[in-house]
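User: Hey, quick favor. My workstation is busy. Could you predict this chain's structure for me?
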Amino acid sequence: MPYLFEILLFLTPFALFFAWRRLAPSLAPRPAMLWLTLAGLGCAMVGLAWYGFSLRSQPHEAYRPAELGPDGRVIQGRSAR
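Assistant: No problem, here it is.
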């Protein structure tokens, strides 16, 4: 039951796109809009890959999780070198 809401959130954009295509079949997206969408998705993928590789730790490097300091402030998790 708790996954029902997540499945609904996932399927909502597809349902809206299907309804749009069904109700207005003559309003096709322009080719320029499709190319811009693909370019944006490509930029997002490159950015995600760059972010993932920039925060990578060395193999077999120990990770120290976040903790509370003596003054009550959170000390960020980090790799122990």
